[in-house]
Write a structure and sequence with these properties.
The protein is α/β, with parallel strands linked by helices. The protein has 14 helices and twelve strands. The longest helix has 31 residues, at 224-254.
Length: 504
């Protein structure tokens, strides 16, 4: 199946001729009709865990093929390295604190905010979600209009043999209405902990990843337990890739692949120490691959331009001929489909709020640097509770007393720096904090001012009472106190009604 997909895709793209007159038009006008759209969303996968992003471990041939014949974005960033806040940002095109309580894990969006698939549906699209949703929304108060329906079809994407969220993707692609364009939100549970790909492994996925082939990053222990943990994680990534390939093959069979805009990305970084929930690249940077044969020029050329995940909603709407609402704070990426070197942002912003543990962090990326602030520096930043319970974290804990490098010790560090600054090109793991260095004072001051401006213009606030820890920071076990919610950031300014995007 994989070989067939690659062969057909290559033939299709190498032998297609686009008239000169059409080639001069903007990408949004390439399609004579509204494009179909698919989001393939991984759960807890870091940007560099795909072959097309340089991984020597990952086996992701289908995603790699999409990148080779589409557009790979090398500087794409999430707004939150946390499941539901990140997904809510994607579906509204807004920053987490502008999504009300949804800035924190498991809290719903305010009823009045628009989910972009509902606008596609209103414009004639068939909309379906299969797999992980995680974008809950409050019901409107009595007397207010009910929001537009988001989905024509919705399921969890699971069956007895496959709990990875992708069991129904091909079926839905086959059984869709043929008289409408479609939007599919295909969201896997791969690679969220606990791993189930290992016990549900099928021969068609290929061989399992072996611990001996895995390389641990410098902030983890390179021992058997950690490598075994990483191998299981990579098995999840490979399974996710496999079902993307099956879906692409079905689109090719139906003859609709050329006018299907596909995005592949993740909601946050891998569920390992110093990744998920971090503002550093290991948590906040995402792979972003776009594929649209009749809408992307200069295929195979990656874009180095900095982009945000909140850009996806206005991109899709614009491509579909639907005007993005004023509430969306992102911008269309269609100029990058024409010219990969074009710029749509000078800066992108991210935030970290409650996810199992009390937190408030903000960051800005621009000019090749990452600048972040931490308003809870007295607390360690160890990652979510499931990561704390992992074999990789336990391996760090066992060697904590005097045997850890500075990079490995980072997850236990308390107090932490309240300000961090990194040269992301020369320090890809962000291990060398440049904040406070006279040599970098000008860039630090500049980014600090930009971040402050963004906070002010978007209505961000630091509440007196944040949501507290609900899990033990050492064991990762539940404190069994429920979730006594604090005040969500931005509440004092009614930030869920503020549409200003801040500096771009």
């Amino acid at each position: 199946m994989l070989e067939l997909f690659l062969s057909l895709l290559t033939i299709n793209l190498m032998h297609r001729i686009i008239p000169v007159a059409i080639s001069l038009l903007p990408a949004v006008l390439f399609a004579a009709e509204q494009p179909n759209v698919i989001f393939f969303i991984a759960d807890d996968v870091s940007w560099n865990d795909y072959g097309c992003y340089g991984s020597k471990t990952a086996r992701t041939p289908n995603i790699d093929a999409l990148a080779a014949h589409g557009r790979r974005f090398d500087n794409a960033y999430l707004t939150a390295s946390s499941c539901s806040p990140s997904r809510c940002s994607v579906i509204t095109g807004r920053f987490p604190h502008n999504n009300g309580g949804a800035s924190e894990l498991h809290r719903p969006l305010p009823w009045h905010l628009v989910k972009f698939p509902s606008l596609l549906r209103k414009a004639g699209y068939y909309t379906a979600l299969s797999g992980k949703d995680h974008t809950p929304q409050d019901d409107p108060p009595e007397g207010n209009p009910t929001p537009e329906k988001t989905w024509d079809h919705k399921d969890n994407g699971k069956n007895k043999e496959n709990s990875g969220g992708h069991a129904n993707w091909v079926k839905l692609t086959k059984e869709r209405p043929r008289d409408k364009p479609f939007f599919f939100w295909f969201a896997a549970y791969d690679a969220h902990r606990g791993w189930d790909a290992d016990r549900q492994w099928q021969t068609q996925y290929g061989p399992k990843h072996q611990p001996g082939t895995v390389t641990a990053p410098p902030f983890l222990i390179n021992d058997d337990a950690t490598r075994d943990d990483l191998a299981s994680y990579h098995n999840e990534v490979t399974r996710f890739d496999h079902f993307i390939g099956l879906t692409i093959a079905e689109l090719q069979k139906q003859g609709v692949l050329d006018n299907t805009l596909i995005f592949v990305f993740a909601d946050n970084g891998r569920p390992f120490p110093r990744a998920k929930t971090r503002l550093h690249d290991s948590g906040m940077k995402t792979a972003l691959v776009a594929h649209w044969p009749i809408g992307i020029k200069a295929v195979g050329r990656p874009s180095q331009s900095i982009v945000s995940i909140i850009d996806l909603a206005p991109t899709v709407l614009t491509a579909a001929g639907v005007r993005p609402p004023e509430s969306m704070q992102g911008v269309s990426l269609l100029p990058l489909f024409d010219q990969p070197e074009a710029n749509v942002h000078h800066y992108v912003f991210s935030e970290h709020n409650w996810h199992d543990y009390e937190a408030y962090g903000r960051s800005v990326r621009g000019d090749g640097y990452l600048y972040l602030i931490n308003k809870r520096p007295h607390l360690p930043w160890q990652g979510p509770a499931d990561s704390v319970r992992s074999a990789s974290h336990i391996a760090l804990l066992k060697k904590k007393q005097g045997n850890l490098t500075a990079a490995q010790q980072d997850v236990f560090l308390a107090p932490r720096p309240s300000i961090e600054l990194y040269d992301v090109h020369n320090d890809p793991h962000q291990l060398n904090n440049l904040a406070g260095s006279p040599q970098y004072s000008s860039i630090e001051n500049k980014l600090a001012a930009v971040l402050k401006q963004w906070q002010q213009e978007t209505g961000d606030t630091i509440p007196e009472k944040l949501t507290p820890d609900t899990f033990d920071r050492t064991s990762g076990e539940s404190l069994k106190i429920g979730t006594p919610r604090g005040t969500a950031p931005g509440t004092a300014n009614n930030a869920d009604h503020i549409d200003n995007s801040g500096p771009r």
